[in-house]
Amino acid sequence: GAIFNLMPVALVLIAVFFAIKAIVSVIVFALFLRYQDGKDSASQLLQTLKTYFKN
Fold first, then answer.
1. Helices 2-34 and 39-54 meet at what angle, rounded to 10?
2. DSSP code string of the chain
3. CA pair distance 36, 46, nearest whole angstrom
4. CA–CA separation, 17 vs 5, rounded Å?
5. Once rounded to an integer, what is the mean pLDDT over residues 36-53?
6. What pLDDT is stored for residue 40 in this prediction?
7. Is 33's pLDDT higher than 90?
8. What is the CA radius of gyration of the chain?
9. How confident is the model at residue 20 (pLDDT cuts 50, 70, 90)?
10. What residues contact residue 42 under an 8 Å CB cut-off, 6+ apart?
């Protein structure tokens, strides 16, 4: 019975984790588009994106 009680908590934590990850992805992408004018910052953000999605 204890395992079944923990299931909703685990599902909520997983959902929150993916929601945060999605929000971070959107923010990083928005920043990338905003600073695309400067090539240095764009390549730096692209590197950050690559590192982020590897994790």
1. 170
2. -HHHHHHHHHHHHHHHHHHHHHHHHHHHHHHHHHT-SSHHHHHHHHHHHHHHHH-
3. 10
4. 20
5. 73
6. 65
7. no
8. 17
9. very high
10. 32, 35, 36
